[in-house]
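worker-3 :: picked Translesion error-prone DNA polymerase V autoproteolytic subunit
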Amino acid sequence: MTHAKLTPAHPAPPPMALPHPLALTRAGISGFPSPAQDYEGRTLDLNERLVKRPSASFFMTVTGDSMDTLGIHDGDLLLIDRSIEPRPGHILVALVEGEITVKRYQLKGRQPYLCSANPAYPPIPLEDLDCQVWGVVRSVIHEYPV
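worker-3 :: tokens ->
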């Protein structure tokens, strides 16, 4: 999975609070919430919720299908944090041999690998490769077609 667009997060994002009703939404059939709960004055600022360290964060649009089964699809927007120390299990953005990629960091034995979530792509052994970790993926924003 390679990048299509790289955009730094705003270093001091302006507040952008949008309505956020208290009622929790269920993915199943649960009846109707009280209409009074829809307008209780709560708001949500996605910058505040998702961007924990603005000066160390950037956005990236991905292309490809190597991470589909982990919920990262072609065209999704990723929020990456450069300040997080990568650990096994983290999804990373890395420059491997000059190519930007999004993969899960794993150890097999004592050897580090970047692994796809698609079995069509083999794990990338990092031993003896030029690899620069750009950051850890904190969030995925997936838009549905309307």
